[in-house]
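Ticket opened by: R.M.
Priority: normal
Category: complex prediction / small molecule

The reporter submitted a protein together with PPE and asked that the result be attached to this ticket for the collaborator who will pick it up next week. Submitted input follows.
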Amino acid sequence: MVQKVSKIWMDGELIPWDEAKVHVLTHTLHYGLGVFEGIRCYRCHDGRSGIFRLRDHINRLFDSASVAQIEIPFSREELEEACKDLLRVNDLDEAYIRPLVFIGEGVMGVHPYDNPVRVAIIAWRWGAYLGEEALRKGTRAKTSSYTRHHPNAMMTKAKICGNYVNSVLAKREVVKLGYDEAIMLDPDGYVSEASGENVFIVKNGIIKTTPPTTILPGITRDSVMRIAKDRGYVVIEERFSRDELYIADEVFLTGTAAEVTPIREVDDRIIGDGKPGRITRELQEIYFKAVRGGLPEYSHWISYL
Ligand code: PPE
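Result attached by the on-call engineer:
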């Protein structure tokens, strides 16, 4: 259960948590055309709270809206300030922040015409997405029978609400079979992404991740690629097949919610020696330092409250 806090930001105002409601004719509720973001705020090493790559997330929200042809009735600056105000008013030193842009009530039918565009921002405490143990020991993934979106069916560069039906189906399928996370293949059969994370593999010291074709271009993915390159690693963006996962030395996932989560098993094949690999652990450690303001070279990624 999401742990309730005092206020939610809705359409420009901070309102009590319990009053943040919508009508059942809300267009997005029926047809799934809305866009959202997931952002984390960490309590940093110096005691201040800092939002990780806030501007990049807000920019991606506007990109998603542009793909979805939704006009956000607020400026980027207003939404950034709203995220910060929300954390301050709720006394949250660490939080997951969820901006959601959706189409309100008006007409029904798949053309929303000029139904009002509404914006909500919710913040709550959210620990390790796939569990603390997954962060330390690695998680067990399974290739889903559901294919990830063809780019001409659903546009994956945009974080569109309806895109997540595919993720929910895939996740439910593998959880029911006893696994923790679903890896999805693209329409050509190559690895695309996990239900809510990007996928990386390491083989002979070289780091590989899927190109931004059928994936959400993750901000964590970008951060980890930057960190890895700064440490002198070769990072390649190239398609790879599921059997390349099986024979990789290391596999890990990246996402705002999942952070850097090692994978210890894919489709019942043990990855490496079944423990998080050396490079995965190194990148995870640096990532956790960076998001908490512990590394000056990445401090520009943090917006302090
Ligand atoms: N792919 C997908 C499909 C995805 O949902 C996410 C984020 C990513 C990649 C990684 O993107 P980024 O967070 O910018 O590194 N998934 C969000 C939603 C999770 C949820 O269950 O809700 C997240 O991590 O916030």
